[in-house]
Each structure stands twice: as structure tokens, then as C-alpha cells.
Amino acid sequence: MNCADCRDALEQTPLPQDVAAHVRECAGCVHELSLLQREDEVYAAYAARIEVPEMWGAVERRLRRGVSPWRKRVRWISLAAASLALIALAVITTSTRPPRNPVAVAVRAVPGPAGEAVARYRIAIARIEGGIRQRAKDDPRAAAAVAALPELTVAIGAAETGVAAAPADPIAVTRLVAAYDAKLEVLRGAAHVQ
Amino acid sequence: MFNSLLIVLLAVGNAAPPSMLPPTSVPLQAGDRIRVRHEAGLATITGGAGKTLDIELPANRRDLHVRRVEPHIVEVTTNGPVALRVPRSASVESISSERASVNIRGVRTVNVQAASGNVRVEEVEGNVDARLGSANLTLRAIGGNVVASTGSGNLSADGVGGLVDVTTGNGNMTIANVRNGVHVISINGRTEISCAAGAIDVKDTSGRVTIRNAAEDVDIFTALGQAFYEGALKPDRSYRLRTLDGSVTLTYAANSAGFTGRVASDASKQPREDIRVGDQSARVVLDAVGGKVALLKSDKTAAGCREVK
What are the DSSP E strand ranges found in B106-231? Predict the structure, then answer.
């Protein structure tokens, strides 16, 4: 199995055996899988935000019905629960604020001398990637750039694995910087054609 | 073969001069490579007209071992200063530790591994390969290619007939008068290249790169550092300086060819500017994402470069 086939199958749950076997041996696909898992976490956080108002509605309906002492007790318990839910919602919303750009989801610290360059690249990419993705439906150049991103992300993942193993190796550092640079140049190429 | 193992343990002779023992002479076979391992002090390896390996040690030392470790490798091991004379046609391999320095001169090819100290290699007919930790490498008059990697050691090369390919972490590279191309990978060092007759390609992360008087294409990338080109622009050549958040500056000499140029900086009010000068025979690209770009014209003509033999 090659990386392209593997990436197409990464969203299946559970992973097919051959895909899982490939992921175990391929650093790039491991990285890709981790990106998807982080995306799932973000979507899960969104889902939590959506469900809370529905719970509020149910609580309010019960409050309107309330007559018996037992129901009164339930009412206070429900109010307390709702308050706790609101506090939890505030915490979840603050801690899992949706990223401006999918790149932000993938952020993990890169050790050694590549760290600062990688951080700057992530910022530069995040500035324009969202806009390019939005334009991809109508703009063939933007669509082509977006289509190239998964492969570049795999290359970045592989290069990050290399830097993690040898943070001060000039070849590994240069390869990682080049991988980020390639991604940025693809996006810049699409951004500057209007 | 291996059973022809030769071991020479020096005995101190009474008639020896006070400072150095009389040289020990080891016969060599055609195609023999000489490997020198030494721990401390200065090892001097000099090529000459002779056919033998002649070894001189200070009189107070007895720690010399010479043996044939492979069919065509004679290995010399010593813990202190040593002087070797080898045939001019010999290939020399030097492996030295943190307290050692090496001078090699007038041999056919050189392969150096040095943890620290200073390594000087001169007048080599063929290639030089070097793997250095924090050791500094000085190269003069090298006829073949130079392939070197350093951790934090500095490299100075002047007069190279072949290609130069250097990789460094934090070392400073000074490379001049190269008859072919130069390729440098650097994380954080200072890179200076002048008078290369071939193409120049530098990939830097956050160092400072200065190129002067290139005869062929120049391609410099620094993610966060500074990149400079100074010199005449040649017809049909391209000069490409790129950065992410660093700065790139090209200063072209008065005797430059005309050129078409693109100066781009995403951070500026005018992100793209196309320039046409003279006969437009050269190509200039200066590109910064968040950094600075500058295209400057000098009133001076570019200095000439000496011919490398």
C-alpha cells in the first residue's frame, strides 16, 4: 500500500488491517492520522457546544411543568446542573476555541534550531491557508493548491520525524524547513493569482 | 593480506638525537592508503618523492604502532605529536581526537575525521573529505572536490579545483576561488563565498550568507537569516535570493549585465514589483514572505577573481 491509498482510507473506523499495517511503518501517515484525530477532537468540541442549548430547552420545559415538591427539588437540581453545564460550556469553549486555520490544529513543538523557523512558517501558512481553502470551490488554482496540501503535509510529517530524531542535524533541519517552504510557496502561488 | 600484519614498536636508541628519534621506515605497496590515528598534539603528514612511510617521533615517546589492518591500508596509531613522510601519490586518512591537530600537505587524496582541534590540508591533488565536530578546517590549493561536514567547526577553503559541498550546524564557512560549483547547507553559521566559477547554492536557516562575484547562477535561501549578493550580474545567469522572515539584499556592480527582476515582499505595501534594466539578459528574483528585500546598484565595478589552477 502506498501513502496516497493509505490517506484515502484513514478516516475509516476501525482502520482496515492493511492500512493499519502501513501506518505502523510510515511516519508520514502517522502524522496524517494524528491530524485527522485532532480534527475529530475539534469537531467533538463543536458538537458539545451545539448540544448544550437543547439541554437548556429540556430543562426549561421541565421547569414550566413543575408543581410537586419532588418536581421542585428536581427543578433546583436541574438549575444547578444547568449552571454547571454553562460553566463547563464556558471552559470547553475557551479551551477548544476553533482554530483560525486547520494548520493551527497540527501545531506541536519542533525541538532544536528548526523550532523558530517552523513556528514562523506555521504562522505564515495559517495566514493564507484558510482563504485559499475558501476559494478552492470557485478557483481552479486554489483548488489545485489545496489538492497538493495532503502530500506536502505528509512530507512535513516525515521531515518532523527526522528532526525529532536528530534536532541539530543540518540536513534534517534543512529538509524540514524546505518542506514547510514548499507548502507555503504552493499557497502563495495560489494566493497571488487573482 | 591480514597475515602480513606488520607491527613496529619503537625502541629508543642510544644514538638518537635529543629531540627526535631516527625515522622509522615502513615499506609500502602500490595503492596503499595510510591511516593515521592520533590522540593528542600535532600530526604532520607530508607527501614527498619517497616510496616509503617514514615516521618520526619525539625521543621521549614510545607509543607508536604501525600495522597493516586491511590489504591496502597501513594504520599508524600514536598518542602524541608525530611527523610522517609519505609518497606524494598516497591517499591519507586521518582520525584524530579532541586534543589533536593535523597538518597534511602534498598528497593525493585526504579523508579527515576530527573531533576538535585544527586541521590544515594543503596542496592535495585529488579530493578532500572531512567530517568534523568542533574542529576547524583550513584548505588551500585542493585539486579535486571538497566534501565536508562540521558541527560547530569553521571551514576556510581557498583555491579548489573541483566542487565544494559543505554541511554545517553552527560553523562559519569562508570559501574562495573555486573552479566549480559550491553547495552549502547551514543552520546558523556565517557563510561567505567569493569567486566561484560554478553555480552557488546555499540553504540556510538562520545564519548570514554573503556571496561575492559569482560567475554562474546563484540561489540563496535563508529562512530567518540574512542573505547578500554583491558583484557583477552576468548575462544568461540567474540570481535568486529568498527568505521567510529574514532579509535579502542584492547589490549589483556598475559593470553588470542588464536584467529582468522581480522584487517581492508580502509584508510591503507593494508586494510585487517587476523591474527591467538594460539588455535584460540576466534574471534577478528577490523574495521575502515577511522579511525585507533590497535591490541596490553600486557605482563600483566588481573586483576580478584570480584563476584557480
Answer: 109-114, 118-124, 128-132, 136-142, 146-150, 155-160, 164-168, 173-178, 182-186, 190-196, 200-204, 208-212, 218-222, 226-231
